[in-house]
Amino acid sequence: MCRLFGLTAGADRVRATFWLLDAPDSLEVQSRRNPDGSGIGFLDPAGAPVLDKQPEPAFEDEEFRHEARRAESTTFVAHVRLASVGGRTLGNTHPFAMRGRIMAHNGGLGELPRLDEQLGRYGDLVLGDTDSERYFALITQMTDAHGGDLGAGITAAARWIGARLPVSSLNCVVATGQELWALRYPAQHALHVLERPPGRRGLRVRSATSSVHVPALDAARSVVVASERLDGESDWRMLEPGELVHVRADLGIESAVVLPDPPDRLVLLGPAHFDSSRLRWLS
Fold it and tell me: What is the number of structural domains in the chain?
């Protein structure tokens, strides 16, 4: 399945190079298992979303490596894709931007015509073919319906899908200028959070063959969210199923299980691959 990454440093502009390229299980490494596209989303100094993405694996994409080394932002969202719904095209590559927000998704959902009917005019925000971008449009619709409360919008969108559509996972990361939200729902795919205090001099990273101390690229305090534990830090915490984490601009963290029950039509994943566009198992 696809892999997610999110980072926020509050008001500080930082680089995410270590996590994207240099960590033992960096996004570049993960792209060898998820080769159908890669992308980095971040905010420019004026706070406008910037997307750098290609329908190519990160380990073969020099542009991904260049942007991972160069980009500075208060928040990042990155993604490596294993395609299920929608072809391997630029428009279907994560992350996506809408209304000044950036989002990436790991999972799948079906019966997209029913979701399109719910979206109404919000369907005009969807530029590609994926279930993920439609999910983001529903988050946008529900956020507007809740007076701009993004946390409530994410919760309502996931609840709407979980009550009506077949779904394997709605794990997502959503970023604004200085804030980050992450949802793990339901329990099928992992999502982890790591708080890094200010002044930490480096990262203790472990691979299968070695343990080394790597100087930190940024000394600023930060919070990282990722599908996999990217390094050997011991402080990674897996989110509970249904847990929504909100990292505020001051890097305070609010967390709650907002979706305690699994989806009504949960698609259980096993060793086969589930194609949610056809709603059947593929061997």
Answer: 1
